[in-house]
Amino acid sequence: MEKLVITGPTPLKGEVEINGAKNAAVAILPATLLIDGVCTINNLPNISDVQILCKILEEMGAKIVWNTSNEITIDTRNINTNQAPLDLTSKFRASYYLIGAMLGRTGEIEVGMPGGCKLGARPIDQHIKGFELLGATVEVGKGTISAKAKCLTGNSIYMDVVSVGATINVMLAAVLAKGTTIIDNAAKEPHIVDVANFLNTMGADIRGAGTDVIKINGVEKLHGDCTYSVVPDQIEAGTFMLAAIASKGDLLIKNCITKHLECITAKILEIGGNVEDYGDSIRVWYSKRPNKAIIKTLPYPGFPTDLQPQMGVVLATANGTSIINESIWESRFQYTEELNKMGAKITAQGKTAIFEGVESLSGAPVYSSDLRAGAALIVAGTAANGVTEVYNLEHIDRGYENIEEKFRQIGANIERVNE
Ligand code: EPZ
Fold first, then answer.
1. C-alpha to C-alpha distance for 255 and 267, rounded to whole angstroms
2. Rounded to whole angstroms, what are the CA distances from 225 to 105, 327, 392?
3. Residue 196: phi, psi to the nearest 5?
4. Which one-letter DSSP state was computed for residue 231?
5. 372 lines ligand 1 (CB under 6 A)
6. Residue 9: is the preceding peptide bond cis (ω within 30°)?
7. How many helices (H) and strands (E) does the chain have?
8. CA-to-CA distance for 313 and 76, rounded, in angstroms?
9. How many CB atoms lie within 10 A of CB 222?
């Protein structure tokens, strides 16, 4: 079993380069199934979710060449099956994008029930509602989902909840449908805009991505012969911004879009941290113990749930009592028990956690329950006194490329050990 061993405290200092966004990449790769041609995707994060998706696409007949560790050329002209490998698709969440993409391509698909981080109930009723309104029939079986459509026809779809996955999935299915689809109450995250930009580069006609009404005029086909660069990862950038404050450090975070980070910048300034915005890079530094804060996670442009645990680490040692209300996921406070093992004083109940700020954390063995919990525990390890061992690295490797190397380059004393 692998673990990360971190000896702290070490103020994180220097420069860190942000990779392409995981949550854009895991949608853009399935979106290549809509193309009858070859395209090149760069700034692709080299993380395990991307590697599994590439394997799935290859098993379905795609040809993939890795030009560098962050660039692939993918040829989806010879997709030869309507069944995605069930064992691989059930390993992670974003496999549900294969449904929208294959409905668009051939009108038929079966995938394993999407897995992914265990954050509480993760229904996909809005995805299904969208597919059905476009003319598909969807069957949820024991461990599988299959969808079929003779012909997809554009329609108006009102999302009952703001859902990143359902917005992207319906967008994928609608790109080659007959007529116009309108998605109302759409999610607005940067990766939604990125997937729409990718599809438009390939010949789709999607307007309004990034607002809550997206209009998709169906087109005959998508061409290849394009190169597309994945948007920088808002959540990875935010993780390092919060790591700078938690570790009492000073970081220049490069290759990011600072507009996407405004909600995090605002909170860092509110608690007494320092931020300088250079447009495509951002400097964040600590100068005094953070003040308490009240945070509520919300869909973009609100404070992202995917940075809630990392913010929790900052508030664990803030001056005073802070409150976090998690409004997206039922079970995203599992990391608080691990922080309590490190000396934090956090009481979590349902969707609310109360953080009684302590002076400092101490190293301990801790277990990541999901991807962002894992990132938060690494950040906590750099801030804590003594040795922290972080277990369950498979969660972290799903979404952060080379994480220990990046932390080491900015001064962390961190090592991956195989027990
Ligand atoms: C995406 O998950 C991300 N995953 C998550 O990131 C992120 O936490 C989440 O969006 C919210 O930002 C990927 O992009 C692969 P949702 P997704 O559909 O699409 C409810 C990470 O750490 N809902 O926006 O699955 C749902 O229960 C991961 O990188 C329905 O009720 O999330 C939740 O309360 C974890 N019915 C809310 O909507 C549906 O059909 C938002 O979910 C769909 C969702």
1. 21
2. 18, 42, 40
3. -65, -40
4. P
5. yes
6. yes
7. 14, 23
8. 43
9. 26
> Would you call 158 helix, strand, or coil by DSSP?
strand
Give the pLDDT score at 293.
98
Reading across the β-sheet that carries 2-8, which strands appear in turn?
365-367, 386-391, 2-8, 413-418
Q: Is the CB of 330 under 6 A from ligand 1?
A: no
| pLDDT, tens digit only, all 419 positions of the chain | 899 999 999 999 999 999 999 999 999 999 999 998 999 999 999 999 999 999 999 999 999 999 999 999 999 999 999 999 988 988 788 899 999 999 999 999 999 887 766 777 788 999 999 999 999 999 998 889 999 999 999 999 999 999 999 999 999 999 999 999 999 999 999 999 999 999 999 999 999 999 999 999 999 999 988 999 999 999 999 999 999 999 999 999 999 999 999 999 999 999 999 999 999 999 999 999 999 999 999 999 999 999 999 999 999 999 999 999 999 999 999 999 999 999 999 999 999 999 999 999 999 999 999 999 999 999 999 999 999 999 999 999 999 999 999 999 999 999 999 98
Q: Which residue has a Cα nearest atom 42 of ligand 1?
A: 163
Question: Best mutation site among 169, 193, 328, 372 for ligand 1, i.e. most ligand atoms within 8 A of its Cβ?
Answer: 328
CA nearest to 237, candidates 5, 51, 91, 22: 22
Q: Residue 416's CB: how many other CB atoms inside 10 A?
A: 14
- The answer to whether residues 182 and 156 touch, using CB atoms and an 8 Å cutoff, is yes
Nearest ligand 1 atom to alpha carbon 23: 14
Rg of the chain in Å (alpha carbons): 21
Distances (CA, A) of 289 to 68, 274, 341, 362, 410: 42, 12, 21, 17, 21
The torsion angle over the Cα atoms of residues 101, 104, 107 and 109, rounded to 10 degrees, is 0
Atom of ligand 1 nearest to the CA of 165: 19
Please report the pLDDT score of residue 122 as a whole number. Answer: 81
Q: Which of 88, 75, 96, 78 is nearest to 48 (CA)?
A: 88
The answer to whether 50 and 274 are in contact (CB under 8 A) is no
Active site residues: 117
- Do 310 and 368 contact (CB within 8 A), yes or no? no
Q: Is the CB of 368 under 6 A from ligand 1?
A: no
Is 95 a pocket residue for ligand 1 (Cβ < 6 Å)? no
